[in-house]
């Protein structure tokens, strides 16, 4: 198994990728029948084949250009790959590269990743399948948007709104705007976090609750897993921000959301479960997901779930959300991993 780790574009995503991939390799060390080979794609665009994912091993590994790396990967001739890149190029182009190289990989294909990385397009696709998405408007192109367009957006969507870049993550550039006067600067901030400058202005879904639901593809069809719920609070924490998800950087990068006061599993008999699981399965099919998918919802005070976004990656680390949900549903990590790999090998 080839583990494709790092980021060709950003140190932050490279650190995040390394954090999860190390967790994965540690957790899978005892699963029999696998040889794990690591490839590190650095923010300099070069590839390294380190002995492990420690900073020292990566530093000691000889960097090679892509053309040479392709030959090395062909020489390794992996049966299967696990893509662990989280930046947009890493999630899309580099998965497509595995297709070109003829290496089957676990998880969602490049085109589905590209779709899910773009919130505007994702919303359109899942809404067409009958999933509720909060009303929204997209402001195009640049931070200096015309006042009239801001007025139009507010009129169409209604305040308060959540402003966000169409294609960022980890709450980067996301803001809750209650007053029209604050909209311009929020849109400008969001526009700076996206290459095309497109910003989504979405109706704020009041609390309620915030939950995520993973869906697995199995031999018997789709299986929705137990939900994870996030700590939010109408007064003190109306939306989740970056500090709720990540802390530190480099070797000290840590996952805040994994601590139990930030997130917990929802009981199976909770009234919120069936509606969210049904919407998650609809979203899975509509987006054309493969192997697994993870879908975020806000649940309004009336108990109605509203789709926020899809996160279609899983690192198979114990801290991966899909892994924690599968474990809560009675499928431990090794079993989840082996069955995903078997599906991958079968489809070839
Ligand atoms: N329409 C909305 N209504 C209420 N809260 C929202 C809405 N959209 C986003 N949020 C809040 O902002 C957070 C980040 O937004 P999200 O769409 O998930 O972007 P990201 O990809 O950065 O995680 C969510 O976890 C949620 O708390
Ligand atoms: Mg999110």
Automatic annotation (TrEMBL):
Highest rank taxon of the organism: Bacteria
Record-linked PROSITE patterns: ATP_GRASP
UniProt keyword list: ATP-binding, Ligase, Nucleotide-binding
SUPFAM superfamilies from the UniProt entry: Glutathione synthetase ATP-binding domain-like
Pfam family, any one: Dala_Dala_lig_C
InterPro entries in the cross-refs: ATP-grasp (IPR011761), ATP_grasp_subdomain_1 (IPR013815), Dala_Dala_lig_C (IPR011095)
Keyword Zinc belongs to the record: no
Annotated GO MF terms: ATP binding; D-alanine-D-alanine ligase activity; metal ion binding
Ranges for domain ATP-grasp: 123-342
Keyword Ion transport listed: no
Segments crossing the lipid bilayer: none
Protein family membership: Belongs to the D-alanine--D-alanine ligase family.
Name this protein carries in UniProt: D-alanine--D-alanine ligase
């Amino acid at each position: 198994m080839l583990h494709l780790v790092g980021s060709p574009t950003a140190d932050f995503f490279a650190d995040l990728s390394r954090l999860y991939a190390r967790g994965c390799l540690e957790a899978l060390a005892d699963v029999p029948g696998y040889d794990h080979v690591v490839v590190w794609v650095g923010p300099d665009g070069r590839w390294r084949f380190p002995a492990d994912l420690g900073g020292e091993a990566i530093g000691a590994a000889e960097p090679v250009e892509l053309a040479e790396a392709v030959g090395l990967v062909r020489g390794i001739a992996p049966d299967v790959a696990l893509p662990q890149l989280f930046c947009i190029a890493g999630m899309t182009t580099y998965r497509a590269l595995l297709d070109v190289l003829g290496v089957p990989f676990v998880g969602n294909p490049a085109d589905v990743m590209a779709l899910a990385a773009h919130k505007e397009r994702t919303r359109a696709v899942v809404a067409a399948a009958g999933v509720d998405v909060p009303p929204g408007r997209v402001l195009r192109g640049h931070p200096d948007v015309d006042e009239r367009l801001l007025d139009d957006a507010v009129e169409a969507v209604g305040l308060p709104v959540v402003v966000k870049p169409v294609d960022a993550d980890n709450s980067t550039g996301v803001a809750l705007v209650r007053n029209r006067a604050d909209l311009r600067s929020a849109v400008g901030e969001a526009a700076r976090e996206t290459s095309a400058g497109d910003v989504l202005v979405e109706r704020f879904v009041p609390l309620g609750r915030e939950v995520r639901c993973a869906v697995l593809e199995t031999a018997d069809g789709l299986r929705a897993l137990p939900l994870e719920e996030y700590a939010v609070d109408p007064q003190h924490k109306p939306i989740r921000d970056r500090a709720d998800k990540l802390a530190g950087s480099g070797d000290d990068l840590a996952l805040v959301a994994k601590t139990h006061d930030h997130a917990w599993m929802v009981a199976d008999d909770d009234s919120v479960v069936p509606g969210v699981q049904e919407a998650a399965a609809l979203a899975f099919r509509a987006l054309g997901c493969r192997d697994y998918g993870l879908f975020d919802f806000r649940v309004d005070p009336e108990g109605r779930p509203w789709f926020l976004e899809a996160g279609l990656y899983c690192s198979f680390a114990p801290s991966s959300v899909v892994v924690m949900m599968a474990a809560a549903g009675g499928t431990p990590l090794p079993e989840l991993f082996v069955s995903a790999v078997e599906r991958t090998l079968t489809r070839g």
